From TrEMBL:
Residues 259-395 form the LamG-like jellyroll fold domain. Pfam families: DUF6701, Laminin_G_3. This is LamG-like jellyroll fold domain-containing protein. It comes from the Bacteria. InterPro entries: ConA-like_dom_sf (IPR013320), DUF6701 (IPR046524), LamG-like (IPR006558). Residues 1-29 form the signal peptide. It comes from Syntrophotalea acetylenivorans.
Amino acid sequence: MDNFDKVLIRLFTSYLLVWCCLLVQPAQADDCSDYVNKATINEIYDLGSETWVEVRLLEPLDSSVYENWSLRLCAKNNNAGCHDYSLSFGEILYQEIYPDWIRVNVNSADVNLQKNGGMDIVLRDQGGQAVDYLSVNDYHAQSTNCLSFKYPTATGQLHSSPKGIYRDPDGKGPWVELGSPGANGEPTEGYDNDDQSGPIELVAYYALEGDVTDSSGNGHTGTSQGTVTYGRAKVCDGVYLAGSGFLQVPDNDDFDIADELTVMAWVHPDSLSVAGHDNLYSFLSKDTNYEFHVQSNGSIMWWWGSGSLTTSAGLIQPGVWQHVAFVYSRAAGQMRIYLNGSQVASRPFSASLPLNSDPFYIGSDKATGGGEMSGRRFYGAIDEVRVYSGALSTSQISDLMNQADPCALPAPLAEWRFDECNYTAAGALAVDTQGSHAAVAQGGVASEASGKVGRAAELDQSTESFITGNDVPMNGDWSVSTWFRMPFTNVDGSRYHVLGAMAGGGHDLLWLDSRNNYRWGGWANSSIATGSFRFGTLADGWHHLVLLGQGGTTLLYVDGSYRDQVPLQAQGNLHYLGTSFEISGGEEGFRAPLDEFIVFDEVLDQTQIDSLYQLQSQGRNLDGSLRAEIFCGTTIDHFEIIHDGSALTCAAEAVTVRACTDADCNSLYTDPVTITLSPSGWVGGDVQTLNGGSGVFRLRHTTPGSVTLAATGNPSAAQSQQCVNSGGSASCDLVFHEAGFLFEVPDHTACTTEADITIAAVRADATGEHCIGDYSFANTTRQVNFWSDYQQPASGTQALQINGSTINGASPGTPVDLVFDSQAESSLDIRYDDAGRLNLSAYFAGSGDEAGLVMTGSDSFIVAPERLRVAATTDGTTPLDNNSFSGAPFWAAGEDFFVEVAGVCSDGTVTENFSADTTLTAMAPFTPATGILGTLTGGPLSAVDYSSGLALVDDISYSEVGTVTIGAEVLNYLGSDLDVTGNSDPVGRFTPHHFLASPNTPQFGTACNSGGFTYLGQSFDYVMAPVITVTAQNLQNGVTQNYAGDWWKLSSGTLSGKSYDAATGSIDVSQVPAGDPSVTELGGGVGLLTFSAGSGLRMDRGAFMAPYDADISLEINVVDGDAIAATSNPVRFGEASAGNGISFDNGKEMRWGRLILNNAYGSELLDLAMPLRAEYYNGTAFVLNSDDNCTSLDLTQLSLNNGVTQVTANIPIAVGTGSSSASLLSPLLVGDANLRFSAPGDDGFIDVTVDLSSLDWLRFDWDGDGSHDDDPKGRATFGIFRGRPNVIYLRETYR
């Protein structure tokens, strides 16, 4: 057994182990995809020797979305296990008719539709989540956690062993067994299963754009006969016929359709009453096979050699475009006529239509006996003629009828498709397809692969936008069309999201207010107008937006429908795309992806808006063509061929081919590449597939001599191939010898010994095709020289060791004694304490009797590090290794830090020659364990980042709070199939970068609500308490959901700078509780700070002050225990300036008040009123506070004293020999307590004191000591009348 056989056995054993693992590994469970019920598994069938699975898109999805999906098939009794198939390898069989059906060719062993068999399939999205599931015969090898499938996911028990199964109706209905195959032995794939019995093919398609070209690709082009004209028709141009001409297509077997037929066209008759006409206005005809007419009474007639079908009269009207379609299915036994998408006539028929060799006429019919019948010529226009060899469904006819008309659209002033691959370079442009108005990217705009049509511009920050180099004039009527994607996820910057603006300011196309559910409005001449439509009501995903500016009004259309208008129109020169000239509370960027931004210098009508919406929804350009696929990934720089320089004629020589993406081949092109190798003689053929960027192929050449190696590929390389041979030179010549040494050094791990490598002395047998032992070496000890060459990298410091001896790095090498056995075989032990690709050469020169004998041999091999060592630091040296939820070091989520990766041996020795493209990922274990794994951003490392086996990068960031493990991975190192991986110790701890603090709108309660005022010194509280919603965020403003539990560091004790302030006066906050505000953690990185007024706030009551409005602010610094702060610190409620303070629920006026009690005098026989009133200082004097209907007094607050006894006013008091009782109103009425004493019947007095200890804001300095701390007092006197006031002079005049 030679060494090559041993390698094969090892490979087979490895593969067997892999398959065993696949068989015993439990099926993975999938959760629901966001695309559930948007796509389904539709059909499984055999077609000849091939097996297909068909997927149907139930909603339009861009190919960039579904091409990353896959099908996983598991079949009963398939010992090979389950297999995955990518939809990127699927095909759309009929792009024009069925763009939503993708079929994938699968291995027949993965399908089991036998009666006693079974299988299941999961359709998975790019994230591995289930889009749809199918179980056949109740077979479940896979499971899914998804419970949201709308359509059936099982077939029931099969009753036979069908050629296929399908949903009926397509995409949605239950699973049924496929019946008999069609005429060609094909199942019902590619069309409505319930309608047809064979595949539908487009026979001919005449768009009639100036001639009779067949656009189906089948070559059935016709000619114009007589006089015809072409002009604007239903879809772009069509043919106009006036009785003097027609169109004719030569006969072809493709037009001879007997059993399944659809023919359709748009017709526009000018007249159905032409004098001398035959009464049949023929618009399409294959004579006896099928011909279609409009009769003079407006009916539609379908005639063939053995029958006819005619509609009712009056359906076709002159002067109107109408769509007619004719469908025949022999299998269904039905003929149907459709007008404008609706069936208008039908009849049973189940025979084959007669065939003929006549031409196909458009606008006329064949005459009896041959030639064209001029008496049946059509008068009018015809457009969009299609002929199919199958019966289309109603929905398919409707789809074709409703296709967009690209010619309905005017030429744009500017058209930015945003299809550029990136905008990262300084001055990066969004190209104007119309050629004049390229726009420069601003503020870090990203390019997004999945646009609505092609790519899109990702404007997710308020500072991101485009600015035109040459402004677009928009001074008259205009239309603007674009696509944007909901939702708006970023609220940085201004509350206003602006779509675009004119140079110089004052004119915005459209703004959206984030504080009002994204309500829209306009801005023109520095005036604002607000619409009623709110963009926040739109579903997530792409939406089409059209603005029409005309006559001082702007109209809004969304997704093709009119929504709203505002009475102003922006005018000027469009300069800003995705932002505004103005800055109101921050940058006014649009903050959503934009695509297909188009400006027209006229107002589009509804038809044009519909066409634009439909075209772009289908991924088409304005001219109706499909947008070409945009390639933004890496391309192949060159192909690298690695070989030994020498080979044997008796053995297939291994040659490595790599697809390199850079000149030094540090990175590989990993997509599949079809390569053509030369010279001929490659095992498996000269055309091979290169997967993963590298492959080993074997060349058999039985003639001694030199050959030149070459490789070309599809996709092709930008540069010429490069070769690396055993000496490290660039020669592509490979020399074949008849005798030499045959050995293969396996790729292996550094710093380990690869033992028992067989080296055989061989020569070609008589045929020259097989190697046999060179028995002159049998049972001998020979001194063979060995040397090694560095191939990649091209130099190094470590030497290769063979059988314990260090060998030279160049010819003639180092002699090593080898003992050959009876088969002329010996063995080698090889060790290399570094990494890279090397070439080992062997050389023997005979002497004496063997003089002239030269034996050579060589082999390239790869040595990889045992693992990758990964470490994170804050600055390149300080470890970021805190595995706890507290203490240092800590680092802000989203901030860049350093990561070092090194290739090492098992003992930690660095392999200095190692370099490779290295992927970094966040992985478990991570903390908090109950949280989520964040995203690692930065990298990947490229091979050029490594120096002496180490790579240090400084642009790595982690999106979450906690700790994380960083994994490093190199796949297929140098094409060896050796993967080198490694993990870091826990990296962290990570904290939020900042807090987003979102204050609510609090409100105070007016103390005297009915009066709209509050007394100075009177307590007032919140009716809506201030609350700050605190959201922990990373540098990129993403929520750090792991900021919770032990990782939550925000408390009332960490907050600072809390302060109340007022524009006028000062605030007494002595009743606010300690520890205010309270902090509540809600989880997911979110918490609440809730403020309290405690027993109430009060405006200080000092010297007399005129009434004023209390404009109060509250502010605080939101800071946690790690000093992580809110970006908006201090977070403020209201402003301490006139009119801007925290609001009151019914007035914020503050009054300096008092309660006054006046003496009273009166008869002992009458009730006595004693004035007790509320007053306030109006800036000049104290006046009655007639607004006070709020102050409440109880009789127990009044102390009564008659000079002998003292009681509270709720108890009668003696006055002389009688007694008096007090009464009052509570609360006050118009500021008056209406205090009264009942008539006592005898003389006396009552001294009254009002206790205002609970209403101290109404006390006054009655004793003049400078302190407003006195209760009001007064005397009620009974039995005397109040004397006349003092009179100095009195004069009376009498007549």
